[in-house]
């Protein structure tokens, strides 16, 4: 089942619907990086290019659980 969360990105309200398991990983990433939920979503949004936001969130969660921590570098492109 999908869970929606709302966030404001670049001054526009949007919502992202993901499975609870992905939200759990993303919450852990935000905590580890010292970011708020909004801060994490902003960083994902800035790096996603043309990838849909929900897809970028899932891809980050998969990469992170696979050991890829390159997202932790604030200057690194994804």
From TrEMBL:
It holds the Pfam family RHH_4. It comes from the Bacteria. Keywords: DNA-binding. The keyword DNA-binding applies. GO terms for molecular function: DNA binding. Residues 3-64 form the Ribbon-helix-helix domain. InterPro entries: RHH_dom, RHH_sf. This is Putative DNA-binding ribbon-helix-helix protein. It comes from Brevundimonas basaltis.
């Amino acid at each position: 089942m999908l869970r929606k969360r709302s966030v404001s990105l670049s001054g526009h309200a949007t919502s992202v619907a993901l499975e609870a398991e992905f939200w759990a990983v993303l919450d852990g990433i935000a905590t580890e990086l010292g970011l708020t939920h909004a801060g994490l979503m902003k960083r994902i949004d800035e790096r996603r290019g043309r990838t849909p936001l929900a897809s970028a969130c899932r891809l980050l969660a998969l990469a992170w659980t696979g050991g890829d921590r390159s997202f932790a570098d604030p200057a690194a492109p994804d």
